[in-house]
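Researcher: Before we compare anything, I want clean individual predictions. No alignment, no superposition, just each chain on its own. First chain goes here; please echo the sequence and then give the structure tokens.
Model: Echoing the first chain and its structure:
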Amino acid sequence: MRSFVTKALVATAGLGLALATPIAAAGSAQALPPIMISRVQYDSPGPDNGSNASLNAEYVVIKNTTRSNRVLTGWTLRDKTGYTYRFPSFTLRAGATVTVHTGRGTATATHRYYNRSWYVWNNTGDTAYLRNASGTTVDTCTWKGSGAATTC
């Protein structure tokens, strides 16, 4: 869901014309979504024994890339299977992150919990979907299962 900026409006010297012209550059700047999935820790360290500590070591980090607070009330985070976390009344501060853990815990401004008793994210590959309150997909993060975490 991330897009690249590749064109600019260029005024033609002496003719007074404006043309849409691709800009040749060494690299394209990537426009970040206002709210994005920045990291998924899909394989908690150690054996998958289902303890709350192990479950909470599996998590997704969501980042507000803007300079203003964003209301995430009603937004959802889900996997391919459909395991879904729904944000209750919640505001993510400007530039801040919130970590959504799989296990149980006390919700704060920086940590939220699925309150599940087993793992959500597949170690062999999965996709995390972040959707706004109207159900529109805002960002996704996919991995194939090499390692324990991915940066999105």
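Researcher: Okay. Second chain, same rules.
Model: Second chain and its structure:
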Amino acid sequence: MGQRIVRTALVAGVAVLALLLLLAAYGGTKDSADDKGAGDGARASSAPGTGTPAPVPRLLVPAAFDTSNGWRIAGGSTEYALAQSPALVAHVERAGPEDFVLRAYDADSGRTVWTGRPWRSLAGPEHFPRLLTVVKGDRRFFVTWSYGKVSGSDALSTGDSVVALDVYEAGNGSQRHLDLPWTGVPVVSGTGPGILVTDGAATATVVDPLTLQPASFASRDLGHPKGCKNCRTSTQVRGLTAKGLLVSGRTEFWVRPTAGKAGKGGWYSAKAAPGGTDPASGLPTSLTASGHVLAKWQMRKPSAWDRWAVHDADTGRVLATADCRKPAIEPGEYPQAVTAPGGQYLVAGNLAFDLRTPVPKGAKTGHCLQERAGSKAVTLVSVTDTGLAYGTTSPTSGGGTPVEVPLATAVPAALADTALLPEAEVAGTGLFRWTDRQDRPYLVGYRLR
């Protein structure tokens, strides 16, 4: 009798163990509490390399990506930041009802590399802090920021508002904080070797990510180039390059060195205009962290076409051009330029550029994928180091038919209507946004084949 009871207990125990293993293998039907707040890759521990990625869903994506080799992060912000070396994906997630935390994941395996200290956003617990990447020399940083009044002030107080910056060393997660006093709505970017905060016009502050020391600039400090008739009208700081601030006037632009005057280490658009264009017509529309300025130019002679050019942000040299019919983009709405991780390809809206292939006079190839006879216009959103660009036939990034465009031919190929498109690539891993049937957001990574 006793042996029968022991045998029965053993069989039951084996059955329970098998059920637990089955649930672990398939992720179950309900996420754990950690799934809802922290990323899947961070459940086990915040210590480097100890996080265990959750089972990855098999989504419908372009054939270049391997859906059997990937990872996923559940919940968190819709924003993420990337570092190419080390290859990391940074993601802001909730650490409680009011707190947030930044986690860095290995781009290849999806495992947690480090977790920052929890903090509260000045924008309130309902709004995720913003996130960006800054590269200075061979150092890479992740930066989270929010804007509001400092702790202890209330809606009726005269307390100063600040931009709250948390700066993380990408390699080890070391974290430092800075409250930057600021009046008005800030515009924060990280395209250059510093954290740039502007008012959307001619006032700017650059924060050094190494020292957290700020340097402030007003309109009088922007060093308008000699002979520039349109530089003092509608002056706007557009971004930060390795050589200094990128500044534009009504139709001309220049790079103003952070130490010195325009013309001494910087450059002026009129002296870098692409052939056949009016030197006084340049308008910068986008600046990338890889050191490229996308600008729109009017032709020297009356024309129904605009010439778009990719400039080297350090020198102004034209790297590539493409001509698009007017209006290629509605006035005031300009495409955001995106480069491949290695910087050899660039896409922006209807525009696609191969920055590797030489053509006469040192320029490179460019394509405008506007609507043509028998084909729809294509709006591109990402490009890989293999020269495959992805987008849709919609004028915006949502809707339309998904397409794949090999930049060697610039001939679009339709994908399945329900295919997800990669938003970015980091170290051979494509990043996809996905929402499950319970409206839970995920960031999914698939390796390139």
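Researcher: What stands out in the second chain?
Model: Confidence is low (pLDDT under 50) at residues 1-51. Additionally, Residues 2-26 form the longest helix (25 residues).
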